[in-house]
Amino acid sequence: MKVLVAVKRVVDYNVKVRVKPDNSGVDLANVKMAMNPFCEIAVEEAVRLKEKGVVNEIVVVSIGPKACQEQIRTALALGADRGIHIETDAEIQSLQVAKLLKAVADKEQPNLVILGKQAIDSDNNQTGQMLAALAGMSQGTFASEIVIDGDKVNVTREVDGGMMTVSLTLPAVVTTDLRLNEPRYASLPNIMKAKKKPLESISPADLGVDVTPRLTIVKVEAPASRQAGIKVADVAELVNKLKNEAKVI
Amino acid sequence: MSILVIAEHDNSSLKQATLSVIAAAKVIGGNIDVLVAGENVAAIAEAAAKADGVNKVMVADNAVYGHFLGENLSQLIVELAEGYTHILAAAGSTGKDTMPRVAALLDVAQISDIIRVEAPDTFVRPIYAGNAIATIKSSDSVKVITVRPTGFDPVAAEGGSASVEQLDVVKDAGLSTFVSEQKAKSDRPDLASAGIVVSGGRGMQNGENFKMLEQIADLMGAAVGASRAAVDAGFVPNDMQVGQTGKIVAPQLYIAVGISGAIQHLAGMSDSKVIVAINKDEEAPIFQVADYGLVADLFEAIPKLEEELKKA
Ligand SMILES: Cc1cc2nc3c(=O)[nH]c(=O)nc-3n(C[C@H](O)[C@H](O)[C@H](O)COP(=O)(O)OP(=O)(O)OC[C@H]3O[C@@H](n4cnc5c(N)ncnc54)[C@H](O)[C@@H]3O)c2cc1C
């Protein structure tokens, strides 16, 4: 079977971003960028399915500026077979990302689409569900286990209160949670090999998708900052403060 | 304006988060209806009808909604959507699963995790793990929104007298079926709405040691949470994870034990009223947000804390 994996280029998770002085957004100049961690988990899962012999082709797709090709190459080095870059410098919001991915899915006809559950920049947690809706597919969100079973996939999901396993009819969309797997690192030979793997570049217009945003960012501000408080000497002082000063116990 | 609120519940009780979503709806203003979809939910519908500010409760009581499968729920909500200017749900696992699907079916954007309402079309939400706060304006005809419950004080659970209407809409998308679930049973308060939360991190070393935290939690009527590192290491179940990609909490008191204070963890708890950090490393970033910091070995501090709390 064929798997489509979507990956997003985002600010590295170790970076503490700063808001721009004009409140138009966050400052991403000279900031380290990387593949969204949940997308790394998605790529890893696809590669493991291929290693198990369940999957025979992994197509990886990314949407954004030219630089996204770095993240596609990373996915290729990790074991994806072929890349599709939907190139645009415009800000593309979740619904439009889902429409672009739907157009790719229509062409590629994957049996399974794996995405991260959320991107750590916009923190939306929307795209996978939207793609599933547009494509009329089933969805297994926040996955911590994926088991292919004939024309079904069993997905164990991290939900409020614990875990839930659902059986989905293929083709399905799965979004990854943190416990699905631990992504590997790309080896040097594989990074070299990835450079020769096919990477096609297309535009949103090629796919016939209108990417006009529906949401406008009015402003972006820094959060109210918390002041560090005091250090207490011992547990007795802590309990005393909580009782008599903060009055929370 | 007319607002549809999707009730969050587990087929046994209405979650407090629903009352916070109704509070957000009240800030938007206008007529507020609530949809209770699930299985054997008569009592939940009754509870929703008593919530302050609700006009009408619609009940879709059917096995196809019993496990809150997003494929089915989204079709039901879309069927009811006409006439509503806003559709709101709590940003819990059901809302996050279902609402983007609803939005896409309606061909509108979805706005996740709002913490404030500026105007009926303008909302405030954290991005980048809470390191930036965005104000967002929607040009869509219907606003499909998930609400971060900690951003809105819940409306009163009693006092309302909404009408209750039974729906006869059965939507089975036929795409997914429920297989099984493992739900952690606990007599402690719900992590997301508890007044006090005691969380442990990698410093706890193993799951057995979390019993120490449970004991102090029980003395204070607190819920127990954890960092991602503690969950990944298998010390505690996944649904105890507090943070950017776990649960968002904002209790009166948050006690972080053996947690370093990574930005992803802070994103889930930095709106707590009072933060206590117990960590043996005085340089740990958690101390930068803590009102009261105790630099100590937790294996000495926690038994002492238990003793002190017992004295009280
Ligand atoms: C995509 C992504 C999403 C993430 N989402 C989340 C999230 O939602 N929530 C979350 O928490 N993390 C999240 N993380 C992980 C986060 O970056 C940190 O790795 C994690 O929070 C660290 O957990 P910790 O503080 O328990 O462990 P550590 O950082 O290892 O800290 C352990 C602390 O315990 C202290 N300690 C050790 N022994 C003792 C002792 N005997 N007495 C006292 N103190 C002691 C140490 O001094 C140290 O400060 C995410 C990461 C990524 C990449």
Task: Describe the protein.
The complex is a heterodimer of chains A (249) and B (312). Chain A contains 6 helices and 13 strands. By secondary structure, chain A is α/β, with parallel strands linked by helices. Chain A has a single domain (2-222), classed as 3-Layer(aba) Sandwich (Rossmann fold). Chain A is globular, with a radius of gyration of 21 Å. In chain A, the strands form 2 sheets. Chain A has a 9-stranded mixed β-sheet, with helices on both faces. Chain A has a two-stranded antiparallel ribbon with strand order 2-3. Chain B folds into 2 domains: 2-166, 3-Layer(aba) Sandwich (Rossmann fold); 191-311, TPP-binding domain (Rossmann fold, 3-Layer(aba) Sandwich). Chain B is built from 8 helices and 16 strands. A 7-stranded parallel β-sheet of chain B has the order 5-9-4-1-2-3-10, sandwiched between helices. Chain B has a 5-stranded parallel β-sheet with strand order 13-12-14-15-16. In chain B, strand 14 (253-257), helix 7 and strand 15 form a beta-alpha-beta unit. In chain B, helix 3 (70-80) packs across helix 4 and helix 5 (210-220) runs parallel beside helix 8. The radius of gyration of chain B is 20 Å and the shape is globular. In chain B, 59% of the residues are buried. Chains A and B meet through helix 3, helix 4, strand 7, strand 8 and strand 9 of A and helix 3, helix 4, strand 5, strand 7 and strand 8 of B. Strand 9 (162-169) of chain A pairs antiparallel with strand 11 of chain B, so a sheet runs across the interface. The structure holds flavin-adenine dinucleotide (FAD). Flavin-adenine dinucleotide sits between chains B (201-203, 227-230, 241-246, 258-260, 262, 264-265, 268, 279-281, 284, 297-299) and A (13, 37, 120).
Please give the number of β-strands of chain B: 16
CATH homology superfamily name of chain A: HUPs
Share in helix of chain B: 25-40%
CATH C-level class of chain A is: Alpha Beta
